[in-house]
Fold this sequence. Notes:
heterodimer; A: mainly beta; four-stranded antiparallel sheet; 53% strand; B: mainly beta; six-stranded mixed sheet; 47% strand
Amino acid sequence: QVQLQESGPGLVKPSGTLSLTCAVSGDSISSNNWWSWVRQPPGKGLEWIGEIHQSGRTNYKASLKSRVTMSLDRSKNQFSLKLTSLTAADTAVYYCARGSPIIMGFDSWGQGTLVTVSS
Amino acid sequence: EIVLTQSPGTLSLSPGERATLSCRASQSFSSNYLGWYQKKPGQAPRLLISAASRRATGIPDRFSGSGSGSDFILTISRLEPEDFAVYYCQQYGGSFGQGTKVEI
Lengths: 119, 104
């Protein structure tokens, strides 16, 4: 059974950088899947942030592209998200998820972690 | 970037009734890339349907998906109490719709 677990600071300052990690168990991040990040601001809908493949290829949401970096850490079987130049609008629950190119959907999710941008 | 528009915003129904949710895309794309998710407060989203009509593992057969091109439908044939939630469509590897809340 695949499990994903997000970790990172719950509070970050405006103009700062958000760094989150997603630890994966039950699958290898070197498998042929896409490892993704999705967020949900309080009271709003889901927003896809982007994804990274084991090849290192990435796809980011166009409006976030200038601020987002995703990376893999094969030694720890985890992947990461960095989001820079934070504002209050980046306050959200952040989810990591596995995107299966066979199923063509996000079939496994982390529980989510709330990140608040505030001074 | 393809924009997905869901309607209605809110659907008020009773247990046992049929729910029909719509997802319309700003341009056509392969139905292989259309998924539906259920979201409840405090829980991670759950994949219901992928490739427009393929039920995910463990999803009851009262959930069904259809559509192609730019128009997609999620149908819940008979609502159970646990089905009251927010439903999102998504182009796999891209944007989500804004969601449809199914409420009692």
